[in-house]
Design brief:
α1 links the parallel β2 and β3. This protein is of the alpha+beta class. The termini are far apart. The chain has six helices and 15 strands. Helix content is 20%, strand content 24%. The chain has a seven-stranded mixed sheet, covered by helices on one side. The chain has a three-stranded antiparallel sheet with strand order 12-6-14. The model is unreliable at 1-10 (pLDDT under 50).
Length: 283
Amino acid sequence: MSEALPTNPRPARIEVQALGPVLGAAVTGVDLAQPIGPATAEAIRQAWFEHLVLVFPGQDLTAAHQVAFTEVFGPCQRNPDPTRKTLDGRPEVRPLVNRDGEPGPRNDFWHSDVSYAPEPVSASVLHGREVPAVGGDTMFCNMYAAYERLSPGLKRLLATMHAVHSARANYLTAGLPLDQMPPEHVHPVVRTHPAARRNALFVDPHFTIRFADMTEAESKPLLDYVCAQAIRPENVYRHRWAGGDVVVWDNRAVMHRSVYDYGSQTRVMHRTTAQGERPFLAA
């Protein structure tokens, strides 16, 4: 059971400073270990809709604090990825641990968290509890901009298409039987953000295995092309972690990947996610 945390009606005086031209902003003036009142929560959500990736530097959160902060963006989920372990006593918190002799799970591939679920994650929250002296960055790309930069003809085509998302790659990597993985789900290739009302590409090279009614071989050239457009350097924000950073991104309009270049250095992250909704494309 979650710890009871009181609410604070007084809004914090937050400041938001852009970190990149297409996504990413630093938010200061708020202590996430303290209760967040409605006005502050709304200000944070509006900054999140605008910048897609928010960085809160210098935070020191318990698991209960992180769960409470995640609730700003929606109901905090129990860990939705059965191939990964959770923190003892906190099924909502997934530790990502890399130490000498204890290598962490590989996340060095572009993806959208748990896109194979019927209602994929809305917000992903990552707390940098221990970070390497050098390396271990996380990269993010703007899927609104990726869609908007496509030609009118390709946008029209993609808006008619659906794609199959599967946990297969995670189960193969974890060495788990494929007959135990969750069902595949079909989502629109272009989805409309329910709050921002903007259209974003919703495919990735890890969980999206093919277009609906097409083979993987037929799908690969177009999937490769649109994903390559998304991760062009001008469409990417690369976050260099400092201890205590809390980073939250909008999984409905962002792909991300970690950079596995830190070897045996210690890197300890705590991840939580907020429940999302079934993707849709507005008429």
